[in-house]
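Supplementary Text 2. Reproducibility record for the structural model of the 577-residue chain.

All settings were left at their defaults, and a single model was retained for analysis rather than an ensemble. We include the record here because the model underlies the residue-level annotations in Supplementary Table 4.
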Amino acid sequence: MFGWTGKILRVDLTHKTIEEEKLDLHERELYLGGRGLGVKWVYDRGPVEPLAPNNLLVFAAGPLTGTGTLASGRATAVSKSPLTGTICYSNAGGTFGVQLKKAGYDAIIIDGTSPEPLFLEIEGDQVALRNAQELWGKNTGQVFDYLKDYKAVLCIGIAGEKKIPLASIMHNRSHVFGRGGLGAVMGAKGLKAIAVNGNGRAQIARPEEFKTRQENLRKILVASPVLKNLSFLGTPSLVKVIDWAGLLPVANFRKTSFPEADLLAAEALRKLFKPRSRACLACPVACKKETHDHIPLPEYETLGMFGPNNENSTLQSIVKVNQICNDYGLDTISVGSTLSCYAEIRGQKLNPTETCDLVKNIGEASGPGATLAEGSLHYARAQNRKEASMTVKGLELPAYDPRKAYGLALAYGTSSRGGCHLGAYMVAPEVLRKPKAIEPRTFTGKPSYVAIFQDTFAAVDSLVVCKFAYLGAGQEEYANILTAVTGEIFTADDLNKIGERIWNLERLYNIREGFTKNDDFLPNRFYEKTGLENTSAGNIDRIHYDKALTEYYQHRGWTNEGVPGDHKLKKLGLWKS
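Retained model, structure tokens:
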């Protein structure tokens, strides 16, 4: 078999058993890998509580992982979110996916719960559960130091151990399975870490064709202006662009103007820290930035949420709070948003010292952090101020204000994992003007655009490759590479259909969990002037949004209430008699 190893590792922590299973060829055909297979397996488990032993936690690579395909050094984690109750997928770069494939596995399915802390060790073809009592109670930096002899390590910090819904899973110090609280799922299972040393090699069906396709892809990626900018400045290069476009969230999305934005931009970061670049495996872009003593520097989202959205222009403090979040294993987007909600309700902005102290409190679920650790929606409801929580389906919005980008607004509302910009990165066409420029402040044509981007990115997450690479290249190039790797014919249309199938299955999962059309709307703040201090940003007409949402459902082949119809399910192979 080419592209896939054909093996899955199933780990039952309750019974401490480890078994190998064959990858179902029909499932592979329908869902490809990564996010697709993970969603399928989590869906098939049926209704569960997020922190219950029978909630599966899946880590999956894709058919391109480990082949050397450019921008393919990634992996996906899938489970039910303890923060939102939705299906949850999270994607991270680094070395884990490649090492997993080199060890001979397409995926790991974690089931059950251990009463004592464990870590999973994969050393070549040897797999074992090891006692992790010595690691329990330690944050991620200490865990990485302890497991430094492994090529790839995933772990949780104290936040995950305490099953905090904002907890993330850290990988090799700077890569993060960040959103939705998957670190809490790992903590509830008593699994502190996964450490992998793979020694195999991916087999390619058509080596000469692969070489040619790879070189063509390299030329396209290297020539991309967007990727050149990311390579030089990293994602902080977005600060000025998003500020210029009027999408920078300020003061918990009550303003869209931040005069001190330049103090947080990539140029300021370069001047202050003189960073060096780090790349995921097989990536020519190298968008990750770190100091010369290996301290990871914050990405755009972290700068946006702990900077303007908390009315903070002190760059050093954001670098520090980013370190704290990484060490405790916390999602910087949700934590930053929760603190801006806290500041609004309290009626006073936080200073950098307060921010750092509160983040530590959240990571330990202590003091004022005990309530904040449940996320902004839980906290705001407890204060009878639900309107101050900037969430969709319980997930905090990232650092893009949707008032001036209506496709982004619709993408937020319809995202299967909640308030997320990566389900369909409409910032690309509406702001960055890539791969095609479209008018941002209109709903005309947006329902179909959003659906296409959602299906595309579901497929990208299942290959598994980097979304930035899609901005530089596209599905045609990756379909050609996939054909060369596997020896099976794939087209861009094939990938789109796989992505559509995954998106519909995620919708079915959320419907089963009780989510409805009412959960596809944004916080009222974006439809009303109330609470908006900078009125020049305007607001979104709710009636127009509702019409666009109905059009989106129609484009998807769903009912007017957002339920996939039988005809659509039959067409995608999801319908069961």
